[in-house]
């Protein structure tokens, strides 16, 4: 492909050159647009249904691909997708429950390998037990790592998680 005959629309060129290319001594009457600072995306997804999933993964920005693939299949089974949730890697961004409530307004918070103490909840519950607190349903579970593979232990953890999610989302 040759870029010699590439023509850009006027609107795009105006956006590319929104500042003056050559300074002259003339006084400009145009108003400069304020510079937009790029937003740092600290969670994966769009949080459309206020479902927050906190995971711990030291090896990835959000979570490793095999975990994301597994989590995506769980979301599909719950009639959700990545647009409906916000996935936070707690190893990179550790917010308190109050901060998460302020920033994301979760109605459901699934904590995978994140403890109630780490997120500064005033209570603790066993894994797979749903706890309502402050207009949010909490579900704590072990790491996604424990659910990987076809071992009997992994199948048992997946089964426990699925039963709790069915209850949590009324499936």
Which key phrases capture this entry?
alpha/beta, Uracil-DNA Glycosylase, subunit E, 171 residues, 4 helices, 6-stranded mixed β-sheet
Task: Give a verbal description of the structure.
The protein has a single domain, classed as 3-Layer(aba) Sandwich (Uracil-DNA Glycosylase, subunit E), CATH 3.40.470. The chain is 26% helix and 16% strand. Strands 1-3-2-4-6-5 form a 6-stranded mixed β-sheet. A hairpin with a 2-residue loop joins strand 5 and strand 6. The radius of gyration is 23 Å and the shape is globular. The mean pLDDT is 84.
Distance from first to last alpha carbon: 51 Å
Q: Care to count the β-strands?
A: 6
Class per helix and strand makeup: alpha/beta
**Would you identify the CATH architecture?**
3-Layer(aba) Sandwich
Describe the biggest sheet? 6 strands, mixed
Proportion of strand residues? 15-25%
The number of helical elements comes to 4
CATH superfamily: Uracil-DNA glycosylase-like domain
- Strand line-up across the major sheet: 1-3-2-4-6-5
Specify the overall morphology. globular
Number of domains: 1
Q: Any low-confidence stretches, pLDDT <50, length ≥5?
A: none
Radius of gyration: 23 Å
The CATH class name reads Alpha Beta
Mean pLDDT: 84
Which sequence of SSEs, written as H and E, runs from N to C?
A: HEEHEHEEEH
Helix content: 25-40%
CATH fold-type name: Uracil-DNA Glycosylase, subunit E
């Amino acid at each position: 492909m040759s870029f010699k005959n590439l023509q850009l629309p006027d609107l795009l060129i105006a956006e590319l050159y929104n500042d003056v290319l050559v300074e002259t001594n003339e006084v400009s009457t145009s108003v400069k647009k304020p510079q937009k600072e790029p937003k740092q995306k600290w969670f994966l997804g769009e949080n459309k249904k206020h479902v927050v999933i906190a995971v711990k993964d030291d090896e990835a920005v959000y979570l490793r691909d095999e975990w994301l693939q597994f989590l995506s299949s769980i979301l599909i089974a719950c009639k959700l997708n990545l647009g409906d949730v916000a996935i936070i890697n707690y190893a990179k961004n550790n917010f308190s429950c109050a901060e998460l409530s302020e920033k994301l307004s979760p109605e459901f918070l699934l904590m995978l390998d994140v403890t109630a103490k780490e997120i500064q909840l005033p209570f603790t519950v066993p894994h797979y037990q749903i706890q309502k607190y402050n207009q949010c349903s909490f579900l704590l579970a072990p790491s996604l790592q424990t659910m990987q593979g076809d071992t009997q232990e992994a199948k048992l953890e997946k089964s426990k998680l699925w039963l709790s999610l069915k209850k949590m989302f009324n499936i």
